[in-house]
């Protein structure tokens, strides 16, 4: 998707800005900047999108497009992103966020689809622990607005302990839910900062009754919005262009890829924080400390057709399904993509980090997620200490709760901060060396961002 079509390119009075990373944060930043400056968007992979990734499967002459990365959004929890989709004209459709939990050794299997699936057996109907789980869930919903504004660092697990939430609620509802939301292990899922969990529960109305759900997906797969963006974008999109070095001087920022080096007035680093730090030549101490504090973990995503990952009773099949392994105690999340994306046809499931190998695998991907623990939370509080200095701005979902809205908003914010600061910066000469020789064959397609 190399797309050098900027109408402003070459005009002497137009400022030149580079955006490094073509995930939602880089796309949002590039879109916001393009009205005012000459933008070059560098993406290391051969496709735009990062965690926005749709996979096409051919079955009996029909093509099904399944999202293996980002998929769903909510008008209140993803307000800016939703407005942008409407602005650029991307069609969307309704979905729901129903959730099931299966713990075979305890005989527990329930879903939030409705009363019948929540009390899916007579044992559950007469189980005080299960009624208590329901009560605790209602209670957490009521407490969420206050908890979302909690100052200071408390993780979700601590909060539940201190406030006498039941073990069943914590281990058989919230831990699998957090593991699904942040693709974490069951053990570390409850280390999630309380504010993050509470604001998601409050704003995104997760697990409302399906008929009331306002959750949406992009019709035809999330990557559709990338197509629309690329068609409308007046700047230069350079895929297969990993930025290896970012050198800040008094009068410019010089970016080096494998093929050449180019000079810009400013740069927005829209890759992950550790990738940004790796590319910076002579990072400041603050950059090293803040960007280096956030850890990442690889998550394997497998798209398959193996229904053994789902609840035993098909009436409990939900959009999100957690299966808790008796031996390891780990929860494994499987998304039922037919329900999520409204697909009729063969069954498509996506399992995060499966503990065994599913049958009928269509594709596998790896995505890196930020670990949003106490270190990350503290680094987020220090963003202003590095952002906008030395002509360098930072965006990415890692500055928030790791969701698409966090990425989108941080991209727009970085663009606006840059535009406000640009008049005070001296001009670069805009000179580059060498030319781009786009090598479409070298990227590894099996890897997500
Ligand atoms: C399986 C999965 C499901 C998800 N589902 C949802 C969901 O339903 N709803 C939701 O809100 N969020 C969801 N998320 C989270 C959210 O989509 C992502 O966190 C968000 O898209 C991240 O955007 P980003 O721009 O910060 O990073 P990324 O998407 O990772 O983009 C960073 C980009 O930078 C590029 N890059 C890195 N280094 C360089 C370099 N040196 N030079 C050039 N380019 C570089 C990478 O190749 C990548 O394309 C999901 C994430 C995953 C993985």
Q: What do these coordinates show?
A:
- With 449 residues, this protein is an alpha+beta fold.
- The chain has two domains: 16-53 and 223-293 and 375-433, FAD/NAD(P)-binding domain (3-Layer(bba) Sandwich); 94-216 and 306-359, no CATH class.
- Helices cover 31% and strands 22% of the residues.
- It has 15 helices and 21 strands.
- A seven-stranded mixed beta sheet has the order 8-7-16-17-18-15-19.
- Strand 16 (320-324) and strand 17 (331-336) form a beta hairpin.
- Helix 5 crosses helix 7 (167-182).
- The protein starts with 15 loop residues before the first strand and ends in a 16-residue tail after the last strand.
- Bound molecules: flavin-adenine dinucleotide.
- Flavin-adenine dinucleotide is lined by residues 20-26, 42-45, 50-52, 69-73, 242-243, 270-271, 275, 279, 301, 367, 396-397, 402-405, 407, 449.
Describe the protein's topology.
Blueprint: E1 16-20, H1 24-33, E2 38-42, E3 54-59, E4 62-67, E5 72-73, H2 79-88, E6 92-94, E7 99-103, E8 108-111, H3 115-118, H4 122-125, H5 128-148, H6 156-162, H7 167-182, H8 186-189, H9 194-204, E9 216-218, H10 224-232, E10 236-238, E11 243-248, E12 253-257, E13 261-264, E14 266-269, H11 273-279, H12 285-291, E15 296-304, E16 320-324, E17 331-336, H13 337-341, E18 349-352, E19 361-370, H14 374-381, E20 392-394, H15 404-421, E21 432-433
Parallel strand pairs: 1-2, 1-14, 2-10, 7-16, 14-20
Antiparallel strand pairs: 3-4, 5-9, 6-9, 7-8, 11-12, 12-13, 13-21, 15-18, 15-19, 16-17, 17-18
The structure holds flavin-adenine dinucleotide.
Flavin-adenine dinucleotide (FAD) is lined by residues 20-26, 42-45, 50-52, 69-73, 242-243, 270-271, 275, 279, 301, 367, 396-397, 402-405, 407, 449.
